[in-house]
Each structure stands twice: as structure tokens, then as C-alpha cells.
Protein 1
Amino acid sequence: MQPVLAYETWGELNAERDNAVLVFTGLSPSAHMACSAEDPSAGWWEDMAGPDKPLDSNRFFLICMNSLGSCFGSTGPASIDPETNHHYRLNFPVLCIEDIARAGAEVLNGLGISQLYATVGVSMGGMTGLAFSILYPARTRSLVSISASARARPFAIALRSIQREIIRRDPAWQKGRYPYTAPPVNGMKLARKLGMVSYRSAAEWQQRFGRERSTEETTEEKPFRHDFEVESYLEHHANRFVGSFDPNCYLYLSRAMDLFDAADHGGSLEAACARLELERALVIGVETDLLFPIEQQQELADLLYDVVAEVTFKTMPSLQGHDAFLVDMKRFRPVIAEFFRHE
Amino acid sequence: MQPVLAYETWGELNAERDNAVLVFTGLSPSAHMACSAEDPSAGWWEDMAGPDKPLDSNRFFLICMNSLGSCFGSTGPASIDPETNHHYRLNFPVLCIEDIARAGAEVLNGLGISQLYATVGVSMGGMTGLAFSILYPARTRSLVSISASARARPFAIALRSIQREIIRRDPAWQKGRYPYTAPPVNGMKLARKLGMVSYRSAAEWQQRFGRERSTEETTEEKPFRHDFEVESYLEHHANRFVGSFDPNCYLYLSRAMDLFDAADHGGSLEAACARLELERALVIGVETDLLFPIEQQQELADLLYDVVAEVTFKTMPSLQGHDAFLVDMKRFRPVIAEFFRHE
């Protein structure tokens, strides 16, 4: 398979070709990290990347790739297999985080970049950035890992496994052979709602919603609908998500996170990290993160302390849990800016 | 509606009729708390209740009631409405925790008990015990609340709302009109798996399962099945649960927990607790509990400190999360025993 890889760039590659920063995304975003002349719509990390932003496109050549296996331009289960002229669907091979990292290296090859200034990864992308740094030690000088980890733990695996089963149990999934005009919407919505529970925090919701009642009425036609505002919030967000993301792609990427274990590279996490040739690393974790708990951020930082000359570990007290890097800009922007101000 | 209420008893009511202890269960157990001459099978709290156990049937007259709305003998949505000769199903009225508490008072009326030595409640039953103590201040001298709270918070509401939606989305649910020979098994299994995630803790699973692989094979027939032991564990437990519990009863009891707010009795939690006439109270919370977090246990204890002469608040470092009261007997037995040794 010769995959298509969709990416966007901001800023200019300098003459020395040493100012490139590659951003690996979480499970669901596209390569559209920030607005640009070509696409002025706001990106998923609009406040973080662009001219004079913490990831400053005046200084750096920023690259953001749509993950291999996703459905926003890069090859994935929803793509057409040129050999059969049919969508891959479940014939797409098992996807690993390392495959996404290798796709990142392909993008750099195409751009003629042999070494990055930095690799930045958020959530699943943090796993990808670590895999990239282990697979290609010479290709990045530094690593920023945000709300990620060196391997998946059983609690996160259980949550993702249930999300996948919710999608698979939707009769509309049809063992992956759903018409693209009629995907398993209910399964995707429910999986997304469960995702929201794991992406945010109990403390945030207590503050935002408390026991506020929903304005939605429960009728005899719709028993057991929504009594509380938090339920309406989940419904609203799930509706926004559904339609944009292909269910089979979701299954593949979700499983890739479960399968990731940096220890596969050498037999232990320590052996894997011994391969790194990083000059600097920044690990950011959030204290309220349920999915990538702060102990795992500490574990990653401890591993890096042993092999990287300059390691910064920041723990954020953000209330927004795993999603904090998308919303708690007041805390995240200065930390990222500081790391990239370095010279 | 004149509900049937199923209960079991252990020990003897003394001549003064003042040694009765009423136990309110969590969402899913029956009244069979411990073995007895009539039913020698092990109960759901076998290590806690019986002769010479912490809840000592040699000293106390123990009563455990199957919750109103449940399906193990007490009237609930799976019962037959004598007026129509059909199962109630969704025609069963909205169930509140207070209804279960009132059913407890009915049981006491039938037994000729005007005042309990203690009310003991676990999880949902702790909410019920608090409701009982607020509704009938003169009917209990003490209260034991284990892994419960004075009201539901949005994080727990969200999880339970998703569980209910999972069941409702199972086509076999048929808007509650499923044949009792073919209930929505897949929905119930998935809801139970999500329940397990909220009942245990990430730390426990990390210790028990780590990244151990499942022996179950993923085949082409069953793509996206189980790669990890934690997934097989969930499957095993979900299979055990399904079949024993009626889906509509589950929906009613689950919603009752969301709806409970002790502040409904007087306008605030403080006003509600001002009604209490308890001599003693014991609040037990578990530090790893996701569903009834330790802050909520602290909140309840603080409320009781203001109005009850003797309050004990115990925080348990158990790894087993919300379920610890069922499994961490080494920690729970001595605390319960100590409370009931009191004279």
C-alpha cells in the first residue's frame, strides 16, 4: 500500500532546513491545526499555532499531518483500495501507532527535511511522537509530549474497548459494511458521549452543570431522555461529532492506542528510551486527566530524565481533564511558548 | 399501587423490639444478603452479615429488603400490574429513592418495629438510608452510609445516562416491550461493562491486568474483539450479570439515583439534615471511588457533624474503588464491627 498522506504547513522552511516542527494530532482532528491563506477557517489548535503564537510560524516551519488511518485526506479504512476499487473498510490492515509515525517520516522525506527542530504530539499524537523519536532517533532534536504516555493502561483500554463495542453493536454498522450515506450514527454518538466523560473531569462538570435541569422535555414518546443539563451537553457535542468521522477509522485508531507500548522497542520502556537522541524534551500532564493519568506522565518524564539532557515536566491543575490542551490556553500557551523561545 | 416488598431477616427481634438493623442495597442485589437456614446459598454481603459477623445476627435482628422497583421479589417494572394483568414495563411510575425509603418503612410497619437500632446503606442504598432518616427521623437511632452521597453529581449522572442510552439503543429493547425470553442482552452487557469501569479503579486494574493479552482469538469473523485480558474480564462479568437483572428495572433504579437530591427536603442539604434525629452516624468513603468520590463522602460527613452528636468518618485507601465494600473485607469488616460493638 502506498498511502496518501494529507498535511498542512505554516511558515517557511529556512535555508538550513532545520526549523521544522511536526505536530501529531489526537485521534479525531484533521491536519487543519490553524487557519491559513488557503483555508481561513479556524483550526483545532488555533490559539497555539500561527504567526506570533506559541508555535510561531514566523520562526518555525510547522507541519501537521492527518494521521494514517484517519479520514481527512490520509489513507484509512474509508479510502478506496486502488487494487480492488472498493473501500478498504475492515480489509485495512491492523493499524499501529508506529505506522502513523512512519507516515510522518514519509511526509518529511517528501519535504526534504532530514531533522526536525521538534516533534509535538497531543494525546494519541504524543504516543506517535514518542514512537517517531524511538524509530528515527536522528530525525528530531526535541520532543513535546502533551497528555500522552509511553503505553496504554487497562483502564483506558477498557473505556476504548467499550466505545468500540458500542459502535460494533449498532446494527447500522453492518460489520463495517455500512453505506457511507447511512453510517452507524447512534453508535458513534454514544461512543462520543463516553469519550466526553473520559476527556473531561468530574470537578469541571460539577462546577459547570451541578444539578441543573435540562430544558428538554421527557415525553411518553421518549421516555428516559434527558433530565439534566449535563445530558443535553453530551447530546449536543455528540451530534456535532457524528457525520464528520468515519466509524471504521475510529475503530482502527482507537485500537492503535490500546496496542501501543513503547516497550515493544527493545523489551522494556527503559531500553526503548535508551534509543532516543533527543537534546530536549517537554512533558505536560494534567492532574485531572482520567485517560492519561498524571502518574503516566510522571512515568514518561522519569524515563526521559535518564536519557535526555534537558527535560521539563509540567503538571497542570486544569479542571478540563484530558482535553485541557484544547481549552485551557491560559495555562498551556505560556509553557509551549517558553519551550520554543529557547535558543 | 400496593407494592409487594421482598425482604429477608437474620437473628431475632428482642422483647424491647429495639435491636433491628435495616440494610438498603445497591442498585442490583437482592434481599439475600447472607446465607440462612431457608436459603443456604452465599449472599451478596456474606462476609459482613450473620452470626458473629460485623453485622451480628446473634445480637441484631437484621433485615435486608429488595428495593422497590427491582426484580427480585419486590414490585417493579417487571411485575404484573393487577389492574391490567400485564407487566408494568414503562407504565411503572417514575421511581425515586424516597419511594424505596418509604417501602422500607412499610416493611418495618409489617414487622411491628417502630424504631431501628441502625439503618445501613451501601451505594444507592446509602442514598436510601439517608432519605429514610430524613423522612422518618424518629424511626432510626443511627445511620451507616457506605460509598454513597447526599445527591448525584453530573459526572455520575453522565455515566448512568450513557448506560441507560446503551440499553435503550439496543433494538431488542423495543421501547421496553421486549419479550422476557429475549431481553436486550447486548445492551445490558455493554451497560454492565461501563458500570464495571465506574465501580472499580484504574490503579486496581493496572495492578491486576497491566497489559496482559487475552487468550481469546480475534478472528476474521469477529474483528475488533478482545486483545487484552481486561477486556475478557469485562466480558466475563457482563455475561454473569445479564439474564439475572431486568432491563426496565435497571433503567428505573439507575434514574432514581440521578434524581436523588437530599436538598429536595427543605431547600438545602443543611435544611434536610436539620430534620435528622440520629444519635450516631458512620460515613465510609473510598479514596479511589469514581462514582461517589471521596469529596462527596466528606460533604456528607460535614453535614452530619453539624447535627449528629457522634459522627465517624472513615476514608478507605482501598484500590477497588466503589465496589470496595463488597471485596475489601479486611478494611471494611473492622470498621463496621467497631460501630456495632458500641453500647
Note: The mean pLDDT of chain A is 96.
Protein 2
Amino acid sequence: MSTSVTLRQSLIEEGLLSLQLPSSPANLYDPIRYMLSIGGKRMRPVLLLMGAEMFGVGNQQALAPALGIEVFHNFTLLHDDIMDKAPLRRGKATIHEKWSPDIAILSGDTMFVKSCQLMMQVPSSVMPAVMSLFFKTAMEVCEGQQLDMDFQSMPVVSIDQYLNMIRLKTAVLLGGSLGVGALIGNASADDVQHLYDFGVNLGVAFQLQDDILDVYGDAEKFGKQVGGDILANKKTFLLLTALELADGDAEIELKHWLAKDGGDDKVIAVTGIFNRLGILQRAQQKMDDLYREAMQHLDAIPVPQERKSMLRDLAMMLMQREQ
Amino acid sequence: MSTSVTLRQSLIEEGLLSLQLPSSPANLYDPIRYMLSIGGKRMRPVLLLMGAEMFGVGNQQALAPALGIEVFHNFTLLHDDIMDKAPLRRGKATIHEKWSPDIAILSGDTMFVKSCQLMMQVPSSVMPAVMSLFFKTAMEVCEGQQLDMDFQSMPVVSIDQYLNMIRLKTAVLLGGSLGVGALIGNASADDVQHLYDFGVNLGVAFQLQDDILDVYGDAEKFGKQVGGDILANKKTFLLLTALELADGDAEIELKHWLAKDGGDDKVIAVTGIFNRLGILQRAQQKMDDLYREAMQHLDAIPVPQERKSMLRDLAMMLMQREQ
């Protein structure tokens, strides 16, 4: 990570530690403290700080809403973990495992309230616009999570449906973080929109890269089992594209493997089919298109180039990651 | 119900019907439509409308935040029902039963976002104060629900702890509804506080009456089984007061029945102990004290008497209810 990122990550970590949540009821606030302490890349609040900075707002002035975005993001992770029955989050026991599902529901709700309280700590002149964008984004994140759950039991999902789902579930919160930053900096409506679109395009690209790394990543660098999505028949961009392209033998073979539980043999076979169909190239092409579109939105913002360099560097770094 | 109440209830019902929630994802929005359609007394939004009206604001101008309070209240009911594993709400299947717990969590989250969007539809001059009070209240409602859950497994709960729990879980939302109404009406800080305190005192009194009606209510009018709290060993104001007052034979007898599962015999025996200890009188005394304090706060607001008559009538009606 570059210095500009790590500096801002530290600001967020310090801010989260000094939130001064009440000690009681312990069963409500201890899970929140725990959730906020187990780390994460803090990418969303860093984007918010950088978005504000581009329009001349110092980090301290944008710190409260930046913390708000991070608390909101962790609320969604907390509730998602209940729905996914996930035992671990960042290598640590999830709240519903360590405490209980009931406590996870309620401390999640409380985190959402806390995120709103932090988000509204902006100048009152921009509060209506900031809160509107925040709530619109929150609504879309809920829709994205519902679509993700719906897709698991749907026999067919189109690539467009999938792209729309990851846009809602993941990308709009990156766009929203940048948009809130721009609003705090009194940016024009056009510039807010450009920065928002930069974030959304980058967010979708980021998620596609996740899909790619699951199959083509270096197991050690990626930090999870390569092929996990294949084993789970997860409807990723790669699988959905393969299903759309495959015919003849490839189609029969792919459906054969999808119908089977399996281990390494399944991962190797499905990866082989992906290779024959040129799926990696298609996914990278889509990612590049999104990245280019993101950059066009950043370019369109009429501030000096040096004000954009932090976000440009961050975007490039995100696209070149191996984990 | 008086005409002033039923008129405003109809406004709320119409408002809820015309919220225009999206049709898709159906698994997200259908549960919300269902939850908002199964009725309820709409007491909180009626209080908000009346609070605003006291300071000269017409019902239409306060309708959006009034709907916001009702959507928020229904969000808390939805999540509480998951935690309580309640099969029914107002005689209808609960969302986690009719759909699934995951869908209930997520559509609850979405209702919370929706409530925020409605709540912020107030003049921007009062928005910071309105949102502050709303989020503070929301936080306290979460704390109250957690304390309620904690109390179920605690061997001893004091009467003060109990009163604090019902204040947070139930009463602050009545106070908050009125407070938001007053804020929309540009009331002074003192008047907002008085109307808030009127609501909180009334809310605690209302909950105590619930405890009383469970034991001393007319089964037909009350609409639920009389003695349900006794059968469930629920830590109500009546039981906690009895535990504090009982000694000698009464104490031995009460603890004997608490250790037993039972039916009508348990209800009759415990009610008998309550009668010997004069628990009903103590509960009524506490209720009267709270009601009087509520009225003092209403009296202290310097607006013409006729502007207070709706709330005065409503409070009286709430205190004389038999269900």
C-alpha cells in the first residue's frame, strides 16, 4: 500500500478505537467493538477521505462520515455473515457464532444507527444531500444482498443480472463513499456524479477481479483456497460467461461437473473448460473496459491533475492486486 | 377511539399504502408491504402528527416523518419477532415464518433505511435536530431490546432496572415521536423536552398497564390469554414488586410456583399472592404517578389549552383502555 493510503488507514483505525461506545449493555456493544477491531482494508472510508480531499477538505473534517461508512459496511458484513452462516470473518469467529444470532441481529441494527449518527456530522448545508446519497446507497446494498441470495436458488442468471447484483451489493458503496466525500467538499452535481461513477465502475471491476483471482490467483498470495467458487458452483462472472458460451462437448462437460460434488479434479476440469473457452480473457476485457470507464469519469473532473493522483494510484493498485 | 385519533389513523393508513415501494426484488419488498398492511394502532405517527399540530403544523406537512416513525416501529417489531421466535404478529404469520429468518433480517434492515428516508423529509432548518433525536431514540430502542433479552436469563432484576428497560424499549419512541413533531413545529428546546417527557412518562405508564391487564384484564376485551405473563414467569412490574415485598409464607409460595410449569392453577395461585400483597394497588399507584407527571409536562407548555386537548384526550383514553 502506498503511504497516502496507509496514512489514511491509520486515521480510520484510530478513529474507530476512539468511538467511545457505551460499556452497557455489554451484549450489545461488546460485539460492535469486536467487529470494528478485527481489521479490514478500510477502503471505503479511505475513498471518502480522498474524495473530500480532492475538493480541499482536510481529513479531520471528513473523519466522522468516513467512520460512518466503515461502521455501515461492517453492519452489512455482520448481517450477511448471519445469512451466509459464515463461521469466520477475517480468521476470527463471527458474532453470531461467538455470541448468538439474536445478538448479531441487534448489534448489527445498532451499528447501522451509529453509522447514521456519524454520517450526519457534516456541515448542515450539505447534510440533506449527504444523507440522501447515504440512504439511497444503503437501500441498494440491501437490494444487492437480496439478489445475491435469490440467485443462489435460480437455475439461470444472465451476465447482466449478475453485473447488476454486484453493482448493488458492492460497487455502489464505493461510489457512495466517494460521492459523500465530494458533497462534503461542495463539489458540483456533475463532479459528484463523476466521482460516484468512477467508484461504481471501479467497484464492479474490483469484484470481477475477485472472481478471476478465485480461479487464476496464486493460492499463497490470494489467501484462500483457489477454486473455492468452482467447488461451490458459485455463479460468478466466469461461470456465467462459460455457461453462455459453451456448446457441444464443452456444454455437456461443464454441466456434468456442475452436477457433481468434487475436489481438485472438479477445479482442474472446470478451469480447463474456462481455458478452452477463453473465459479469463473475456473477464479481463470486461475489467479493463470498466477500469477505462472509471478513469474517464475521473478525468472529467475539472480539478488540477495532482489532486487526482491519489485516487488514480489507488485505482491502479486495486486493479493490480494479487489478493 | 375519538374522531381526532381515527382521522389521523386513516391518514397514516393511506400514507403507508401509497409509499410506492419497488416491486423487485420481491423477496425484499413483499415482506415490507405485508408487514405494513397487517394493521396496528399507529399510535406513534398519530402522536407525531398531534405534536406537530400543537405548534401549528398541518398533518400533510408532517406526514412523511410520521410514516417514518411507523415504518421504524414496524422494523423493530419485525426483528424482535425473529429474536422472540414469535409465530404470529397481529394474528398473522410473522415474516420469518412466512418467508425465512434471512429475509426477515434483510427486509427489516431495508425498512430501517426507508424510515430514515421518510424521516429526513422535513424542512432543512430542523433536519439536524430531527435526525439527532430520531437516531438517539433508535439507539435507545436497541438498548431496551437488549436489556429485555438480558433480563430473561438474569436471576434478579430490580424494579428500577425494569422501569429503565421499558422506558428504553417502548417509552422513548412515544416521546421521540412527539419530540420530532414539536421540532417540525419549531418549538423551543424547553417545549420539545416537555412534550418528549410527556410521551416518555405516558409510555412507561402504558407498559405498566399492559402488565396489569395481563393479570387483571377481562380476557375477552384484552384479546389474549389472561395470565400469560404468569405462566411464562415473565419479569413484569407485578412479579418484580411481589418478589421485593414477599416474605415468610408468601415468599415460599411464590418461589414454589415460579419453579413450576403450570396452567390455570398457577395463574390463580400467583394472582392470589399478588392480591394478598396489594400488588395491583402498587402498580396502579405507580401508573397514576407517571400519568400525573406526564400531565405536568403537558401543562407546562405555553400554548392555548385547546391546542393540548387532543393529546390530553388521547392520554386519558390510553390510560382507561381495557385492551
Note: The longest helix of chain B spans residues 189-216.
